[in-house]
Amino acid sequence: MIGTYDKVHLFGLMKEDQYLSAGKTTNRFELQQVPSAGFICYDLRFPEWMRTLGTTGWM
Length: 59
What we know:
Low-confidence stretches: none
Shape: globular
Order of helices and strands: HEEH
Mean pLDDT: 83
Strand content: 5-15%
Distance between the termini: 20 Å
Strand order of the largest sheet: 1-2
Number of strands: 2
Structural class: alpha+beta
Largest sheet: 2 strands, antiparallel
Number of helices: 2
């Protein structure tokens, strides 16, 4: 296992916020010396999440 991912953006229509706690950390790791990060498809709705990682030199 390279890393873990705690879902940061909970899906309101499924009421995830009533049953789950949002994560607060990014999933950064290196894959063959290439800085990388894990995302799920719902994260695409929150470009600032990926932009933050991109501006920190991790992507």
